[in-house]
Amino acid sequence: MKICRVEANHLENIPITPPPARKEPSRGEMTIVEVETDSGIVGCGVVGGGGGTPWQVTVEFINRYVGPFLVGQDPVLTERLWNQMVRQFARRPTGMWASVVGAMDVALWDIKGKVAGQPLWQLIGGTRDKVPAYVSFGLGGPNTSASQYPAYTRDELVEEAKHLVTQGHTRLKTVVGRWEIPDPDEDAARMAAIRDVVGPHVWLMMDAGSNMTLHDALRLCKLCEPLHITFFEEPVHANDPRTLAALRKQTTIPLAANPSGFRVAYRELLLQEAVDIVQPNVATIGYTESIAVANMAQAFNVPICNGNGSGPHNIHLQAGMPNGWLLEFHYHNWQTYEAIFQDTPRPSKGWTAPLNRPGLGLDPKVGVIKEFRKLPR
Q1: Helix boundaries (H) for the chain
Q2: CATH, residue 92
Q3: Cis omega (within 30 of 0) on the bond before 93?
Q4: CB 100 within 8 A of CB 58
Q5: Helix pair angle (241-248, 214-224), 10° resolution
Q6: What is the pLDDT of residues 209-264, one digit of tens each?
Q7: Host domain of residue 111
Q8: Which residues 6+ apart lie within 8 Å of 122 measured at CB?
Q9: Which pTM does this prediction carry?
């Protein structure tokens, strides 16, 4: 069996369900990679991250260079192909380079599972058939790490949290770390308002998107320690291991980070004892590298959790690995998945389960790529 076609398409202007407190965003986008074999099996991956690279560059790079490099190769030799792609295209494993190689690797593992006739979570370990899941909400705002939409007011955050809890969601995360006007006191007040409305039994997490100084992150931690925060994600600039380690020594809130790069970046977090949780994301570094990160973290007795905007792709990693833990459903991206794929895992009462189908179980709806793809000019 050989690879006969590799194609990347950027999908845009896809109608989605907006978040509970807002009418926007009501449109989604995603860059999808399809890898087809001469036996008719198609693997599907997504490009995550990219370091701000325009999608046109990513799509052209895949279709003109990475695709031809893979055509004619055996898709199930994932370790070999991963190392070949890294040497050829991602010697500096950040930004677009890492995301492109990661997307190809995800598609190859999808093929591998389909050839084996097994769901991917079973193929890579099969540790558990369901995982705890949380919903990230209130993600609008130029003063958060999340999007170009206007920031949520405190009242909007409270109302959206209340709505999600009434829908049965028992684990929630929102954003802090306002980079335009840093204000840890207001961030703490927002977290306290959410805690008041959701009660003591809902898991509550916060994410600064690597936007805070050590001083501001520490102040926010001290103010929020009485709120029983499950973890604080990416609190400080650049996920700097030394700064994270200094913060971790001064707070009781567990720290998590998803550094830019491959396993070496995660190794530094572990060696510096900088975090309580590491967060490999298959949409940015692929399954081959994420499995290596998870195994390395297990040697340090550190759990993994993630999802980022790609929870339905990351579920197999969390379910498959013995130190897998929480899976994120980013509300906007979750709704985009629902609009693009035939079926997706969904969070319910704080849990979710991988689809019991060979490979990833994530195949695009018929006609969706043709309808929403945008061609580079």
Answers
A1: 55-61, 67-70, 78-89, 95-116, 120-123, 154-166, 184-198, 214-224, 241-248, 263-271, 282-299, 311-320, 331-340, 368-372
A2: 3.30.390.10
A3: no
A4: yes
A5: 30
A6: 898 999 999 999 999 999 999 999 999 999 999 999 999 999 999 999 999 889 99
A7: 3-119+363-374
A8: 320
A9: 0.96
